[in-house]
Write a structure and sequence with these properties.
8-stranded mixed β-sheet; single chain; binds adenosine-5'-triphosphate; alpha+beta
């Protein structure tokens, strides 16, 4: 299969610059798989896993929303945050999950439920992706 350039960039810097044969990601409209020759595309990403595949390697990353762009046979993901499975701090994600669940279970008027729900989704996503290392 044909390899193409993949880059994943966050406000903190570049997380991936490598060639792969396939990129799978979760967009607002559903899961997407990109291979060489894919039509140009820009799609918003939700909190979810990104999977990068080539013959002898599969990489999993947790991303927290952003955009995926396919152009000139190159895939660029601009993400709010992105961590490779191996770099995820599982204890931190578990703590974040507990914090978010606690916030969601204590109904205080000043509490921003939507924000707590997003924090919960980020934590669960990181825990899921960490299980792929
Ligand atoms: P926390 O409450 O633990 O900070 P968060 O979901 O609020 O979690 P983010 O705002 O999404 O954190 O991310 C802030 C920075 O910390 C980003 O650079 C992100 O990659 C990193 N990060 C967050 N959680 C983890 C984790 N469990 N393991 C590794 N890096 C993490």
């Amino acid at each position: 299969m044909n390899e193409f350039d993949v880059s994943i960039v966050t406000p903190d810097g570049s997380v991936v610059t490598e060639k792969f044969e396939m990129v799978s990601a979760r967009t607002a409209a559903g899961d997407i798989g990109v291979m060489a020759g894919h039509i140009p595309l820009v799609a918003p990403l939700t909190i979810g896993a990104v999977r990068l595949k080539k013959a002898n390697k599969t990489e999993w990353l947790a991303v927290s929303g952003g955009f995926l762009e396919v152009r000139h046979d190159q895939v660029t993901i601009l993400a709010q945050s992105a961590e490779r499975a191996e770099t995820i701090d599982l204890a931190r994600a578990q703590e974040a999950k507990k914090r978010a669940e606690h916030r969601l279970s204590t109904k205080v008027e000043s509490m921003d439920d939507a924000r707590a729900d997003l924090a919960l989704q980020r934590a669960i996503n990181r825990m899921n992706v960490a299980s792929h290392r």
